[in-house]
Amino acid sequence: MSGPNAFRLSVCICTRNRPTELMRALQSLSACQGYVHQVVVSDDSTSDETCDIVKNAACAVQYVRGPKRGLGANRNHALRVVTGTHILFVDDDVFVESEFVPNIIRHYEGVAAHKRQSVIVTGLENKQGELIVPHEQSFLGFQKKAYGESTKLRTIVINSTVFPAEVFAILQFDEQLVYGYDEVDIATRASYTGFEIELCPTAINSHYPSELNRSAYRPYIHASRLYVTFKRYWYSERRPIKALLFVPVAVSHLLTASLLHHGIAGATSAARTIGLALSYSRKAVNTAPWMEQSK
Fold first, then answer.
1. Residue 220 sits in which domain range?
2. Backbone φ, ψ for residue 138 (5° rounding)
3. Are residues 126 and 270 in the same domain?
4. 150 and 29, same structural domain?
5. Within this chain, do residues 170 and 251 fall inside the same structural domain, yes or no?
6. What is this structure's pTM?
7. What are 158-174's pLDDT values in tens digits?
8. Same domain, residue pair 128 and 73
């Protein structure tokens, strides 16, 4: 694409204490320099090791210190310095394949010029040999439902998704989401705001999940699922009865599953998770910084 519809891709990597993984991610981007307009690293690390890695990266990097308030806040922080027309978020343990960006560009070339700023393109992810495709949320919020051929996409594979910058002129990531379901939240809100999500099955990146930070993030995952799914039903779908039904069913499911698998300790942990999700919801009702108007 050229002229007024030129495609300028900004790649954002939000990282925390994974310098070795980040180095590999940046090396993969060095092979894509002809297609990448900008690389942004927003660093939530607790040492200067990541900063030192970036200084010696094989590709040009715009480095910013992160806010250290979780992934949602870090993604928004990276967006503040983005200058591209389109944006790709990849985790620091992702390898961007050489054909990913060209395949995304070819997909956009097939989209009418006047629609390109309203189309989000999601590819697939090769996760250690397993091909990850977008799945719709179940009633409880798990991404388990396969999409039918004609079903409108509401979710994405975040490490292989290119957003038009227009999305973030209207939306922002929910900064209460420390970890987990932030990609579900932004995708479903975007789809209900008027953006279309299209699948490009030839656009595939590779993910090599690092175990670093996983234990610190784990307590947030189910709280994020409960909160994001309630938000979807109440605010995006505007189905309050469904949202109110979701709460007792989801709470009962989490408590029962935790008790069966982990005994009293599991139930105690589940209770803390539910309390965290409720605190997210209460704060959202009062502030709702993520809310947007329909396009």
1. 214-287
2. -80, 175
3. no
4. yes
5. no
6. 0.93
7. 999 999 999 999 999 99
8. yes
